[in-house]
Design brief:
Number of domains of chain A: 1
CATH topology of chain A: Ferritin
Strand content of chain A: under 5%
Low-confidence stretches of chain A: 1-23
Distance between the termini of chain A: 28 Å
Largest sheet of chain A: none
Helix content of chain A: 55-70%
Structural class of chain A: mainly alpha
Radius of gyration of chain A: 17 Å
Number of strands of chain A: 0
Order of helices and strands of chain A: HHHHHHHHH
CATH class of chain A: Mainly Alpha
Number of helices of chain A: 9
Oligomer: homodimer
Largest interface: A-B, 28 and 26 residues
Chain lengths: 235, 235
Amino acid sequence: MWSRRRVAHPEPALRPVVAPTGLTKVEFTALTPEPLAFLGQAAALQLEFFEGLALAVMRAPDLAAKEGVSAAAGIALRAHHALIAELRREGVEPVSMMAPFSAGLDRFRAAIAGDDWYELLLAIHLSSGLLDDFSIRLAGGLPADLRTRVRAILGEAALGPRLEAQLLPAIAEIPGLGDRLALWGRRVVGDTLLVARSALRAAERPSHLQDEVEPVFTELIGDHTRRMDALGLTA
Amino acid sequence: MWSRRRVAHPEPALRPVVAPTGLTKVEFTALTPEPLAFLGQAAALQLEFFEGLALAVMRAPDLAAKEGVSAAAGIALRAHHALIAELRREGVEPVSMMAPFSAGLDRFRAAIAGDDWYELLLAIHLSSGLLDDFSIRLAGGLPADLRTRVRAILGEAALGPRLEAQLLPAIAEIPGLGDRLALWGRRVVGDTLLVARSALRAAERPSHLQDEVEPVFTELIGDHTRRMDALGLTA
């Protein structure tokens, strides 16, 4: 299930120039799915991140690495359980809302497994960073109470600092790792954007809504580039 | 792996073994290792349980099973992190205290993997049940403050109800599973008792201290039998 697969896909488009937007970020509103579908999707994603991180704990080169990564695994697991609790609060069986989305994540799961521990870790770092941002913006169209709670859950789910702390020293110390991870990161972002786009696919999407979609993706890619830069990797 | 400092008392003054009552269980006292070694061992065990449960999440037959088992994984991970925090509070690097014990767990790790998901789950259920009880009793000789905190951590770490909830319906529904798991449980308890005994091995153990050890193991095995009975399995 976690085996490596290689599927050719186009390189991401040219790196967009993104102006820093301060506190206000572009949000989806008209494309936000109905709340139960949104929660099911967000819960399924956190479960994917947890499973990837749990694998990273098992494969970790030493106990210190296990500790750092297990902290990240705990963060993803708490977010998953909090989102499941929101589904229960709405009176639905979480599994029923996660299942349709989980089934579509097979390709993604294979894509983020990577060839070694560092590729796995970078893939989780990049994909969780992008998809958490995506979900936070997509939450813009949820009812106000739910939106607030979901953003609190996802805001606490940030894995970045924990994973950067593992990756930065390794990139500095292991010859050639930075070059390899730079290439790997370009593949990962492509697969991650496919997940994000597929999450919008089910929504009715009249062509005029493209005006809403594209600026968000441009910003998501800009944030991705900053995550790569922070690791000294060319995006 | 156990510090010899704690057992350097030439003639350890055996505190009276607590008489079993409805609430009080037999405890170790003279054989409790020094606090840092105890915490390192307990933290390493919770990490093992977490890794086993994380594997069980990945291998789970469906999303409902993933949810039940991931809740158990979260419990073990919280206990692991709480014990690590206790080590930090004592001013030591957790990894340095876990490493000696972790290295000895290879055999145990292989032993609990099992041939399928149900064997893995039963092995974690039985081994965590026994070893958590073991640690709670072994905590009897810790300084009072630490003892209270450790017992609170381990008391919250109980995985039993979550794992029983997964195993009971499967045993009822899958022909032959109960017989297979009954045999498997006997192997698992053997390997688990080896872990418990090896945790005491490094301690100087004058023969008169056997008087303290044996009643505890007798009770631990009795509790194991009750766990098997609760699943309808012959111990």
